[in-house]
Amino acid sequence: MTEIRIEKKKKPVWPWILLVVILLLLGWAIYELVVENEMAHVPLAPPALVHTPSPELTLEQART
């Protein structure tokens, strides 16, 4: 009798690659949403604390 070789079919790899890509995109999107929400709550310095010279001042007036 002759021997019959039976080989198992290899499962494709592309579904795993697709799953990893989708998970990475989902993680990135969640991260961006969280970072933007945190940045919206960062208080800015009050405008009274920032000294900006008036454009009407001359150079001599600004020195004093």
Distance between the first and last residues' Cα: 110 Å
- Number of helices, counting only DSSP H or I runs of 4 residues or more: 2
Q: Please, how many domains?
A: 1
Largest sheet properties: none
Beta-strand fraction estimate: under 5%
Q: Unreliable segments (pLDDT under 50, ≥5 consecutive)?
A: none
How many strands?
Answer: 0
Shape: rod-shaped
Rg from Cα: 32 Å
User: What sequence of helices (H) and strands (E) makes up the elements?
Assistant: HH
- Overall average residue pLDDT: 77
Alpha-beta classification: mainly alpha
Q: What is the helix fraction of residues, given as a range? A: 40-55%
Structural key phrases:
mainly alpha, rod-shaped, 64 residues, single chain
Would you write up a description of this structure?
- With 64 residues, the chain is mainly α.
- The protein has one domain (14-63).
- 50% of the residues lie in helices and 0% in strands.
- It starts with 13 loop residues before the first helix and ends with a helix.
- The mean pLDDT is 77.
Provide a short characterization of the protein structure.
The protein is mostly helical.
Task: Furnish the topology, listing elements before pairings.
Layout: H1 14-40, H2 59-63
